[in-house]
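Board notes (copied after class):
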Amino acid sequence: MEEIKSFEELFEESVKEVDLGKTVTGKVITITNQGEIFVDLGYKADGIIPKKEYSFDENANPKDEFNVGDTITADILKMNDGQGNVLLSYKKVKTRLVRNEFENKVKNDEVFEEKIQNISEKGLNVLYKNTIHIFIPMSLANINKNENIENYKGKTIKFKVIEYEPKNNRIIGSAKKIAQEESKQKQEEFWNTIEVGMQFEGVIKNIENYGLFVEVGPVQGLLHKSEISWNKHLNLADEFNVGDAITVNVKEYDKQENKLQFSYPKKQENPWLKVSEKYNINDIVTCKVVGLTSFGAFLELEEGIEGLVHISQICEARIAKPEEVLKIGQKVNAKILDIHPENEKMELSIKELEGTSNEYVEE
């Protein structure tokens, strides 16, 4: 005859096995105004999670995360808290869950987006889910040196973890890495769509003697001085400023080398194309000295058109160098000896006007 079990025996069989240190799952029975969570463990005693065992953040409110009836997982700290309840800790379980989640994100090279908690001269401190501290050095924060870093406190920052050494409590984040990756992607898109002749509205980022460096979208290219003007002696710094907007056309590019060269749509027509219509051999012209060399002087008739006065054609007197009688910027009269439009060259003489009414050398 089958033995009839007592109610007490049936109850003992129905309850869960609960041991010190074990992780258990139950349902939230109630959440007190003091922040205590009472949990039905399916055991002969309920579990309790005191406020201090809910979170490492003293200001955290369990009512913001849980409702009555929700499932919750916790570690057993004591079988009896002195009031007949099983003492539980949720913050330790949550720490493990958060850390596992964090580590998976790090392994997958995912982007984090967290609020900046504190700022120092060395960098930014952020907190992942109120549990894991991450340090972002100022050199990796992607913040302009001219900006007031204090304005970033409390703001959200995107970053990736580039160093993770939990045993040494060293977790380093980088916002700069994201900016670099985004820039690289934009550059790839740019190089995949660029074509010769395309026109861009760019910004001048740097001015050198030989040309302008212009930024168009995610890349910079060179607008050579020769593409801007026919005037070889043009001082670009007198005509342009860093930060100026400028229209440029793509002249040539090299995807492999990431090199880009522009042309300037506002460049005037080559004046040498019509030089024969304006000047003739034996014409007397007023010029400006724009260059001095050991073999002579270069005179500018107009912007883009220059002629050479050989040292032997500067004056009757024998001189060792042009600087003895000429200087840059000086105006003089000269006679055209020969014109070579196809080579963009012109031969001039100052000497042939000496002693004549056409002689003129600015003092």
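Comment from the instructor: Residues 202 and 216 are 5 Å apart (CA to CA). The chain has a mean pLDDT of 90.
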